[in-house]
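User: Please fill in residues for this 408-position structure.
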């Protein structure tokens, strides 16, 4: 696969005036040609209002989208005058190829914009203006895996909701139902999602936290306790270790409340704040019934954490309305708190019930769950690395056993 992208910028010169009042509102449409001679739109520029000499913003496009990786394939570009009602006026067109464009700004990349109809009619018709390539920059896309191979470690922390809204663990209706015969909703979600993320964790040691319970011996409410009962060393060995610690906690703590996310987010953020060289990236997995009590605080913690090497995956269990979780996900509206916006999207929400059958006992598609749980992590990760200018380190050379002759 071709992971190259190009960044290009174009300007127009003396384009035809189309509007009765004012000049033109030009924009460009790029087409990739297909094997069968048809064309597919692959990019549209923005409209520059009321000018015959527009300078369009630079844009980035994957080479795959532009020419399917074929440097000599025709790329057709049409120029239009934008109309409010959508009946855009055709100004003219020209074609080129990746190979031509790659010569950069030069006499080869000044294109006459031709309107074939006018050319046929008017003897003196020369062109409908020109379009010039101002810059052409190739950008090899680095991937999430390039960083992992280069040594970046992913640190997954698990946090489990132990609040009373989940129901009494002695009752079968509880999402934390303790039964020797079946897994409860939390255990199922933890096991399924844990097995997915386990593969990405370097050492498979997971710090695991609980929140919203009263702890023994004194019944104090905690919003960030170690599931294994050891705050100095909250690590559990693999997802099986987390499961074991979860069952232990369930026996010893008392589900309580309120449901505060902010303390566990801040807990991981404290560690994430101490790493800024790209050597580690933190992912907090919160499993919850979604009934959140500290929405304002949580938003602020997320906005605070959005500048750190950190992502949050929220898995919602049970039948509740997940509106608040969807809001935290921030795919529709970027999260903000007291007028401050998150620097980037760091939250991914996954409603677990969408992946289990009607009896609630079987996962319908582990592959689909895996895909959706991890869907946004690589982009969130890359957006952090990119804005910090952190490049992946070269992968270490493959290991050669000692005493084995190295080939020259
Ligand atoms: C991973 O993150 C947790 C905080 O959630 C922290 O306790 C632990 O020390 C981190 N691990 C490493 C290797 O930094
Ligand atoms: C967010 O960061 C500010 C500034 O560091 C801090 O004062 C505030 O307490 C943080 N908010 C939360 C909810 O932790």
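Assistant: Residues filled in for all 408 positions:
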């Amino acid at each position: 696969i071709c992971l190259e992208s190009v960044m290009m910028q174009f300007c127009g010169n003396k384009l035809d005036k189309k509007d009765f009042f004012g000049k033109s509102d030009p924009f460009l449409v790029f087409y990739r040609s297909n094997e069968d001679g048809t064309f597919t739109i692959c990019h549209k520029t923005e409209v520059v209002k009321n000018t015959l000499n527009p300078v369009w913003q630079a844009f980035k496009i994957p080479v795959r989208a532009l020419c399917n990786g074929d440097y000599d394939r025709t790329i057709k570009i049409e120029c239009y005058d934008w109309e409010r009602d959508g009946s855009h006026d055709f100004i003219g067109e020209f074609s080129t190829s990746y190979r031509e464009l790659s010569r950069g700004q030069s006499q080869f990349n000044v294109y006459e914009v031709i309107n074939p109809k006018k050319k046929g009619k008017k003897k003196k018709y020369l062109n409908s203006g020109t379009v010039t390539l101002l810059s052409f920059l190739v950008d090899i896309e680095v991937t999430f895996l390039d960083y992992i191979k280069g040594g970046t470690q992913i640190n997954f922390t698990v946090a489990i909701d132990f609040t009373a809204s989940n129901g009494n663990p002695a009752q079968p209706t509880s999402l934390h139902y303790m039964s020797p015969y079946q897994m409860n909703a939390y255990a199922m979600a933890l096991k399924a999602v844990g097995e997915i993320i386990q593969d990405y964790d370097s050492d498979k040691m997971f710090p695991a936290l609980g929140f919203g319970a009263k702890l023994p011996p004194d019944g104090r409410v905690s919003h960030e306790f170690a599931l294994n009962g050891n705050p100095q060393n909250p690590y559990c060995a693999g997802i099986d270790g987390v499961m074991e610690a979860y069952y232990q906690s369930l026996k010893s703590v008392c589900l309580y409340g309120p449901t505060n996310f902010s303390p566990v987010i801040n807990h991981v953020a404290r560690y994430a704040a101490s790493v800024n060289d790209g050597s580690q990236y933190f992912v907090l997995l919160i499993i919850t019934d979604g009934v959140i009590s500290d929405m304002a605080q949580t938003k602020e913690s997320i906005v605070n954490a959005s500048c750190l090497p950190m992502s949050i995956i929220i898995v919602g269990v049970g039948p509740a309305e997940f509106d608040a979780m969807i809001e935290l996900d921030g795919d529709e509206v970027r999260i903000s708190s007291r007028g401050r916006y998150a620097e980037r999207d760091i939250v991914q929400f996954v409603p677990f019930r969408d992946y289990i059958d009607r009896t609630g006992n079987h996962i319908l598609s582990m592959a689909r769950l895996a895909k959706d749980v991890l869907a946004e992590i690589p982009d969130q990760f890359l957006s952090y690395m990119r804005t910090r200018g952190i490049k992946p380190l070269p992968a270490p050379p493959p290991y050669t056993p000692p005493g084995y002759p190295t080939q020259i």
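For context: Residues 4-140 form a domain with the Immunoglobulin-like fold (CATH 2.60.40.150).
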